[in-house]
Amino acid sequence: MKKTHIIWDWNGTLLDDVNISLFAANQVFISLDIKPLTLNEYRQYYSVPIQKFYHNVLGRTPTKIEWKKIGNIFNYYYKPEVRKAKLCKDAIKALQYQQLKNLTQSVCSLMEQDDLDLSVCNTQVDKYFNLIHGRSSQLLKFGKSKQLASHIEKLNISPSDCVVIGDSTDDALSAFDAGAKSILYTGGTHSEEKLLATGAYVVNSLVEAAILAERIT
What we know:
Blueprint: E1 5-8, H1 18-31, H2 39-45, H3 50-58, H4 64-82, H5 91-100, E2 104-112, H6 113-122, E3 132-135, H7 145-155, E4 162-166, H8 169-178, E5 181-185, H9 192-196, E6 201-203, H10 206-215
Parallel strand pairs: 1-2, 1-4, 2-3, 4-5, 5-6
Helix pairs in contact: 1-4, 5-10, 7-8
């Protein structure tokens, strides 16, 4: 009997950092003389790769000088706060559910590897994962597909046995590209409308995602 492997996204899925990201992004927009976004507006505009998000808000591609400014300001406000971020509601219950079911779990995130390792360690959930995989490049120009494919290869598990649980449309699209299934959580960076448009399963709680994951492989 085959076993389901759960691949968790980190930011906005297990880690509750959406409002931290919103605040940091709004400091960027204020510096560019753009009106700050509400949470609902942020979820409508947000895209991966992140360049698309700023293009959506500005209505154009940021210049090289602006892009450097965007990165510096965002990280100035985001990084100190994300180190103190807590887990999303019921994240521990969802992880424990999978553990009790003897299902393996891992994290595949677009957060930089060093920051991801620190964040997972700070929230004391590293014991649940057999692989914690962040990005190594400074600037993300593409979506998650290439990294997720590499992640599954490192796991040495068939993609058809994997379920990706995330909070963005890119989580679903990268899962489909890899041949895995996807469940999207509405408590993160994207609106429910955008999540539903991917054709992935959409849930309102992480426990619901954990239960569903076992049933769809």
